[in-house]
Amino acid sequence: MRYGETGVNLEIDLSRGSVEKVETDPRLTELFLGGQGTAAKTLWDRVPPEVEPFSPDNLLIFTAGILHSTPVPGANRVAVNTFSPQTNLMSHSLMGGFFGPEMKHAGYDQIIIRGKAQKLVYLYINNDKVEIRDASHLQGKGTTETGDVLKKELKDDKVQVAAIGLAGENRVYMASIDHGHSSAARGVGVIMGDKRLKAIAIRGTKDINIAHPAELFEASMKLHRQIADSDGCGDWMAYDEDDSFHHNHFAWGNARTRRKNFWSKELEERWRNIKYDNMDRQTSCYNCPKNCRNVIKMPGKKRFGYKCYGKDTYHMAAFKELDFSYDILGIAQEYGLDSYSTPQVMAFAIELYEAGILTDKDMPGLPADSGDRFYYLMEKIVRREGIGDILADGVSHAAIRIGNGAEAYDHNTTKKFEQLPIKLGKVNLAYFLMIATGEKMSITQIEGSFPQDPMRTMEERQKFVDNWTSPPDDKFKDYFLNWEKRDVMSNQAFCEIVDWNEAMHYIDDATGLCGFVSSFRGQFGGDVAYNIHNIPALIEGATGIEMDKEKLWEVFQRNRTLVRAINVRRGLRRKDERPPEDHWAVRDEEKEQQLLSEYYEFKGWNEDGIPTLDMLDKLGLGYVGEDLLERGILTDNDTISAKETSAAIDKV
Amino acid sequence: MKAGLKKKIVKEIKVDISKCTGCRSCEMACSAFHAVPKYSSLNPSKARIRVYMDEIRDIYVPIRAGGYTQAECNGRNLYIINGKEYSECAFCPASCPSRDYFKEPSSGLPLKCDMCEDEPPLSEPMCVEACKFDALTYVEREETVAMEGTPLTEKQVELKAAYESLVKTHGRKKLMDVFSQLSKR
Question: Does domain A8-203 have CATH number 3.50.30.30?
């Protein structure tokens, strides 16, 4: 009997119309756990680098976390992975809600989709019954609308649906996969559309077995209480009406303009009214005692849900106010558009128009008002009509295709992916490393455990550190206590801090835990529910796999290194690891590059950012090393490894 | 107290649907508590509480399994509450032929809430403990009721429901034959 997992993967080939259930090797669970980890293993094994993202041989993989469908609260984010046409690298996306747990109750840890359907289809999974069904009646339908139609057709409100909208159907690179009011962004909807797969509707009524029942249940109920009571968990922006953080510090328009004094009490009051006059309720994901999602219904518009910065991206890109975002978000959600990258693409187009690089010939009938322009562009993009066909490939590709100086306006991407619009003064070296080397493509997917900023007085720092239980090692407390200026710390400290931040994301994305109770949240206040100390016992309680801190850390290193190897095999190198040049006004190229070298060495990668044979061997990834040797990506001389790097935890 | 009357503790779970966030922790906890052995497996579809959910229409109603009913209802009401339309099904606790609610998924046997009877007793049912938004709260109230014959215990009620369901599937005669054969062994 398998514990904490089903031990079965579902293999769908849309070209052949075949469905297969494949038992998995339990040793792989021990090595990669689940989520992005096992997805990376599948992609490494089965998608060689020659496979283009739009090839039928590309895989689209949904993987549940190892803690999904256990009593552990806040474990519900399913990992969605594939190769992205925007970056040509591995796409990594997460979707909260109910989909991952439902997969496991249906009997599957992973759904692996290959091939392309002849015409639009959807996948219906009801426990052992799996059918590829015609979806012509769903063509052009919105994401939540599709879910609604399918739930009614299948006569079950507990069917969980993940769907693409018009954006995905038309292979827009910014297309998301949406599941109710949860969304998987960053380059996965486009591949679902390319495979002609409109939706997956899944229902499961099977047991998930728990290895250590009483212990795990008791620990979970305690965590329920703790998370519910803690201000250090969940998305505080769901409750706090003061959002000066994003508005005063992030850049508006095409990641261009800071408005440092934008926020005011008057504005806060006005926006609070807009919110509460139109908010139905705050909702939760599966088995989570936080209600981070604000559900809004504007008169005459579709109901939508959002979290955190998601409510700001559209109005900040369009220089509007909250009501603008509230109006457009319901439409964008139905089209299935990522609300982080899409507004940037549109603001980029408007800048090009104002600079005369795009003209009325490219955008006939473009309205005068910036908000109206967003609606205009959105319609063009989701239909790939006219200029929309070019913009639908994202800022970097669009800039190249438009040419005529447009490249200079592509100033906020890394690895061809739109970054958060943040433009600051002095370089923060921890952030330099994270933006440069992160392969989950967004800063939100790597930052999160160590605070963003130092505290002023020693007294404040001491108080913070006294209550701080999450650091893997006491040295992080020393780093924080002695931290005075944001940009001043030893290179060793920067490396270790970034490594710890990254570790927690890789662990969450394998366990299925949500970043708002774990990896992302500790940076704000420190009082986060999950950390490297308590997660191992939960994994052991659910699965029976012996787990401790060191072993879990090694899972992180293995998963992380494998993702790096996958991308290296597709061409990723040091030269690509550059944050946007204007991310900080004051840069120090020499210092940055020195640090990057030290970080690579710390990670067990060579000067070009390629994992060394030693490191790969140490993690049980010898076969990866052999492949890289065969391809000439590594040579026998590349064995010079990092110094002993058990990363942040030296023998603790 | 008048002759023929007695005091009875009525256990109630108060449901505030405006506070429900749709997290389904109640389903999780219920299914874990009723697993055999306790907490050994998770399966919300075996829970004796179910959040009737419709994200698009903002409808969230936790309903508790009330009991088995043989017949489908012959017509249902639609309730409009604050402009939102609820089907009667959204409030109905029955394990009935017209829907899949409150049936053990593999056997089809009806499920019924037992208020988490346990030894020693829990301070409140598991679903209430798991609900951190106070959409579910537990209330005990004393009521004076007329004495009847010896009431069935929870276990007997459960067995009775199982018995009736088997009768329905196989017919009374066949069932009795099997029972008498088995009891001879």
Answer: no
